[in-house]
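Project channel, design review

CF: Before we commit to the Parafrankia irregularis constructs, I'd like one complete example in the thread so the newer folks can see what an input/output pair looks like. Taking Nitroreductase family protein.
RD: sounds good, go ahead.
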Amino acid sequence: MESGTAGIGREVAVEVVTTASLAPSIHNTQPWRWRLAAGRLALAPDVGRRLPVLDPDGRQLVVSCGAALLHARLACRVLGLEPEVELLPGSAGRPGPEPALRDDLVLATLDVRGRHAPTDADRLLFSAAGARHTDRRPFADQPLEPVLLEQLRRAAEAEGAWLMPLAHSDQRLGAAVVAARADWAEQTDPAYRAELATWRRADGPAGDGVPTDVAATHHPFRASDFPLRDFDTTGTADAAGTAGGPPPTENPTVIVLGTDADQTEDRLRAGQALARVLLTVTAAGAAASPLGQPVDSDGYRSVIERMLSIAGHIQMILRVGYPRRDAAASTLTPRRPLGEILVID
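CF: and here is what came back for Nitroreductase family protein:
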C-alpha cells in the first residue's frame, strides 16, 4: 500500500471508494461520485439520481452522500491512515445562500495527514460495513439492550448529531399515527408509486435499486405499530409466512436521529452519524431499517418535531431490533461498478 504521507494514491483510492460504495442510500440510488486528483478525493452528488417526488430538495441525497463519506473515513483508518475531511470546501460556515445542489458541487474533500494505527473499534465497524444492509426481517420480541442504545447515542454524537429513542408510549403512539398517515399518503400518490417502480429491480444483474427478493417482505398479516415501506407497486406482494395465523405485533425500538440545523453541512453530518449508528447496530448483531415515510415530507417531519418538542431537525427515524431466528436472512443490495463512481485524474 502506498504511503499516506504523499496524499491518497490510486490503490488506496480504489479501496476507500469501494468501502464508501457500501453505504446506505435512499432506495439504494447510490447518488455519489468521487474524483481523485492531486492526492485528494473529492465527493460530489450525482444529481441525476435524485428522487424528484420523494426528495425534491435533495435532502436525502445529501444524507446518503454523508453516509458514504463516513465509510470512506473508516476505510482510511483501517488502512492505517488518518483522514482529514473538509465539508463544502470554500463555502461551509460562510454567510450567504446555500450552495445549489449540482453535479459539480464538491460536498467534501478527503485527504490524509499521516499514519494512524486503527483501533479495535475501527476494525469492528469496518468489518460490519460488508454485512450491513437494510434488514426488513421481522423482529423478535426482545427489547434492545440499554448498553446498545447508549452506544448508538454516542455514535450519533461523535458525528455532530443527536439521537433520541421514543421511550414513552405517548411518543410512540403519536409518531406511529403520523407514520401511518404519511405511508398512506405515499401509497395513494400515483407519482410516488411511479417513481418507486423505476427503482424496483427485477431478478437479474443490477447495480442499484431495490431487488425483488429484497423488497418482497411486505406481508399483509405482519403486524407492527410502525409500518415498513411497501416496495410492491403492482399489488402482488408475497404473503408467504402467514400460515398458522398472524404473528404477534412487532414493537421495535424506534430511534430518531437529527441535527440542530438543517443546512447542507448539517445533512452531511447527519449522514455520517446515520452510517456510524447503522454500523454499530450491525456490529452488535441487531438489525435496523429506516422508517422513511414520515421524514420524506417536510410537512410530516415538522409535525413529528412539534409533537416530540424537538428544537432541532429530524433527519431519519429507524426501527431497530433483533431479527427473529426463524426469519430467512436478507440478501445484500447490489452496488454500482467502481468505474461509474470513481474518476482518477
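RD: helpful, thanks. The longest strand covers residues 313-321.
CF: The CA atoms of residues 221 and 231 lie 16 Å apart.
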